[in-house]
Amino acid sequence: MLANAREDRVFSAAAWSVGTADGVLDRGLLGTRAWEGPPVGEDSLWDLASVTKPIIGLAVMALADRGAIEIDARVTDYLPAWREKAGITVRQLLTHTSGLPGGTPLYREHPTREALLDAIRVGPLRTMPGTRVEYSSQGFIVLGLIAEAAGGAPLDRLVAGLVTGPAGMTATGFTPADTERAVATENCPWRGRVVRGQVHDENAVVLGGICGHAGLFGTLADLEKLGSVLTGGAAPLLKPRTHEAMTATQTEGLALRRGLAWQGLDVPGSPVGTDLGPRSYGHTGFTGTSLWVDPDAGRYFVLLTNRVHPVRTGTGIERVRREFHAAAVKLS
After folding, report:
1. Which of 69, 113, 199, 284 has the CA that lies 20 to 30 A from 324?
2. What residues does the Beta-lactamase-related domain cover (predicted)?
3. Where in the chain does DSSP place strands (E)?
């Protein structure tokens, strides 16, 4: 099925894995790092895009386990200068109910880190906090700043110390030094080149590539490790009760199911279809990536592609994701 999707030019490369806490059931790689490029391999780095968000969420919840963050505290408890956003809580940032808008190309008018962060700080809310789920990268940008303030370290060091290091994800991080290993993404009009090894998201570029909403690169093997850890209950990353709270629906009564940094299984409307169990949780990335976990089946599902190569306008990944998960749940 994935080979056929490549034939249809949905992506030039794909990697996938289905497994349990005890090991892999099925995995593979196919295609090339770019059209007419070298084959993908085990060491290929994938732009995880918004799969970064739940990894930042894991770091935030690890800080909560250590008493450094209180998830019902307000933004100004950690960022005193952000008085304009004093009514927003950490929980609302994690559940995309902060009222901060989503999908805003701030980089076009705010080309420096300071200017972009100021635009978020003073910009209007779309809705009152806590009243609506609206997917917001701005919210996770703020969450990354809160993690740095509470954790007393830069975000990349916090992620390494609290998530990727304990999970054994040795190849995952921000701003990779070896860009030749990276799978190509878009032929970007803004940058005037095919992007390889730099984060695809333009707002993340302006922020320096290390931020709460996007920017992580990782290998298939590393995503397998994270999937296995989550399927096994998230130790040693989180306490059991913290993992349970993080993956439970926090948005009852609102239109979309959200945990703490995780997306729940919406029926209809889930990007991975409806074949996974009702307690499933996960996240997708704009570049064509995803990680999902079905706790009742005891399985994780990883799909990595570069569906934005060479342009972001293709729509085939929606079908591919649904078909992939429908096939993966049937593995014995």
Report:
1. 199
2. 13-320
3. 13-20, 23-31, 46-47, 173-174, 187-188, 193-194, 216-218, 263-264, 281-285, 289-294, 299-305
**Is the model's pLDDT at 168 over the cut of 90?**
yes
Q: What angle do CA 195, 200, 203 make, to 5 degrees?
A: 130
Which tens digits make up the pLDDT trace of 193-206? 999 999 999 999 99
- Give residue 86's pLDDT: 97
Domain that holds residue 61: 2-328
| Length in residues, the chain | 332
Contacts with 153 (C-beta within 8 Å, 6 or more apart), sequence order: 161
Mean pLDDT over residues 85-114, rounded?
Answer: 97
| CATH number of residue 57's parent domain | 3.40.710.10
Q: Is the peptide bond before 166 cis (omega within 30 degrees of 0)?
A: no
Give residue 150's region: left, alpha or beta (phi > 0; psi -120 to 50). Answer: alpha
Residue 22 backbone phi and psi in degrees, to 5: -95, -15
Which H helix or E strand runs over 293? strand 289-294
Contact 250, 269 (CB under 8 A): no
Instruction: Return the pLDDT at 332.
Output: 78
Distance CA 224, CA 134 (A): 29
As beta bridge partners, residue 303 has 16, 290
Beta-carbon contacts of 315 under 8 Å, excluding residues fewer than 6 positions away, are none
Q: How many domains does the chain have?
A: 1
